[in-house]
Amino acid sequence: MLSASVLLTIAVSLLSVVSLLFLAQGARGTDWMTLWMDETWRDSLGITLYVVLASTCMSLLIGTWLARTVSFRQWPFVSRVLRLPMFVPHIAAAYLFLILFSGQSGGGWFDANEPHYVTVILTYVWKEVPFVFLMMGVTYEQVNQGYRDMARTLQLSPVQQFRHAELPFLIKPLLDTFWILTAFISFAYEVPSLLGVTYPKLLGVLAYDRLSTGLYLESSEPYAVALVWTVFVTGGVVVSYMATHRLRRRIERGVRR
Amino acid sequence: MIRQFFIVCLVLFPFIGLFRASPDFQASSQETMLQTIGLIFVLALVNVWLAFTLAWWLMWTESRLKPWVEWLVFLPLFIPLLASLFGMYLVFAEVGLIGSRIGVGLALLMATLPYSIRLAYNGMYVIGRPMLEQSLGLPPFKRILYVLIPLFSGSIRTIILFTTVILLSQFALVQLIGAGLVSTVTTDFYQTYAGNDRSRALTNTWMLILLPLILYIGLGGLSTWFVRRLKGRLS
Amino acid sequence: MTLRLVQLHKRFGKTDVLDGVDLVVEPNEIHAVIGVSGSGKSTLLRIISGLTAADRGDVYWRDVPLGNLPAHKRNITILSQSTLLFPHLTAGENVALACPRKNREEAERWLETVHLKDRYDAEVHELSGGEQQRVSLARALAARPEVLLLDEPFTNLDPRLKYELQRFIRDLVKELNLTTILVTHDREEAMLMADRLSLLKDGKVSQTGTTDQLYETSSDFGEFVTVKGRSLPATRVIVNETSGDPVVLKRKLFRFGQLFGEYQDADGTYLILPSLERYEVDETYYIKKKEE
Q: What is the pTM of this model?
């Protein structure tokens, strides 16, 4: 029974690898030069990188700071409230922000659908901060607080205390969370299609629109873009994990729980 | 205190707009609602089962395959979902699963399972091998009933919450794999989000938030009741 | 240079862990604070080092109240049972981090002091338990503290290593003229290392004195034996003088040449050994007559 379940799980996980092979198949015949020169795709890539980096970095910074503060100061109420956005599906969160910023009947501070994607970034930050908080909160609960006390009594400055008694233990969860968020935000449809503008669109929206619009039905371009983006993200994952492998292993073996 | 108040306000602020409308349980067609709830139920059950069995296996196995299996099951977390959906669209087109509930269910399982495995694995890691070893003397059914379910009730709830929220977030997935033939409340509601009927859209937003919330609170009550019953049996 | 604790109070929930602790630690002395588990020993050290704030009372160093001075500005370091070497750094880098100038030469000198000069580049997981404790000591000393706090640092070590390190640390802190507080539940350890002892009981210091004083007068510290109907402090070693045979020590309390303990030979006769001059003690705690 156990091995059957394990095999089934492996099969489901393999499905995503197989789907990438089919994606490569779908991308065949693409004129890569034309794709690279296509201004629509290039503008889309630029705005996607900006939205992804801004949303991910802000979520990581705020989420980690909150996990640290809540853990050290023992704020159970804040911890509970911070979970609330996790109950909101992304699409509903996007709508909450749409009416919050919309000029018609909402706050109207600025247009919800504006070219700098501020509402998209804010929606992602609001939605992902609780996720980061959850991931980093577990880490802060597990790390031996004695390291921090030790750093303090060794007369290290607050910055050095963080650098040596906290940061090394955050490397793995920060890397994990960074790439999970990057993968998630960078090639999504629902939030940016509701809150974004018609030009430039984020990569996921542009690719999905082209895939599902009759005009481009036979085109291999959306598949090619999806493939390139996947290779880019997974490449980043592999490189960053390889670069930190020795350090992470050293920490794992020397740490005292 | 001021800092806490400020943080709480920032988190709650986006909910303000929601109170311009009230929830309406008739917002979606009954058939779609039932279909969505059925999908949540099946998907949550499969996720909990597969995630925990794999986490259990990873906890105890000494196999040389272990690091590879770990990489394989966590890899989908790092692959953009929509991109692998494009590939899956082509796979499912080959095997005739486009437009079917099984196809949509499988795609949703692929989207949710890596998160569930991660949560189950973290839960087991936190409780640790020494504690779990104590339960190994029990027969499997008793082990699950008396030890594992009460120990992991928190993780199970979180997995079900994640599964529900991810499912309710999917418009592109259901549209692409379901080819318009399979619908969930999300695909229904998306039309109003794209349109101009603001109060209808707000009512729908209420529904999308209430579904996971009610489920989560209900599961909390259920798990408290379950643990109490077990304690009653043991005393 | 005196460290004074004045009316320290600390409450956790409904329990007064510290209920008015007064203590004076003289310059350059090793002062042991003894108490059972949960008596507040570690809380006391955390308050002295600035890791935990007292509810009331204060710590004075050179007659200056430390009050709200943060831990990283107190010049007080701790050596605890968990070595807590930073795992991303090598042994030497751990020591260098604590050195004021953070350089390799200085760190190497400290590693040499603890007899680990060639282990600078060793990773934390490559060090044995005893080596980790030595590196941890080098690191605590490298920060150039004025007060060293020892929080049951020998708990996780095997007996032989423990004894070796106890002597080593004692000699080293004496050589460096450091004011040291050792908290422990182990009376033997306290007798072995400290110049003076205090007993922490019910949140207060109930007794303070030199090891000799307390061992001979207080049943909380000393062992008392009945010899021919008289209760006598077992400060002097009891051996079978009639046979002159070597006696196996059932309790061993050495303080560098001075020997405390209670002994009983096979036929239960007690005799008092006035001094150790005619006897020697080997590493495995056996006492035997010196060869003439």
A: 0.86
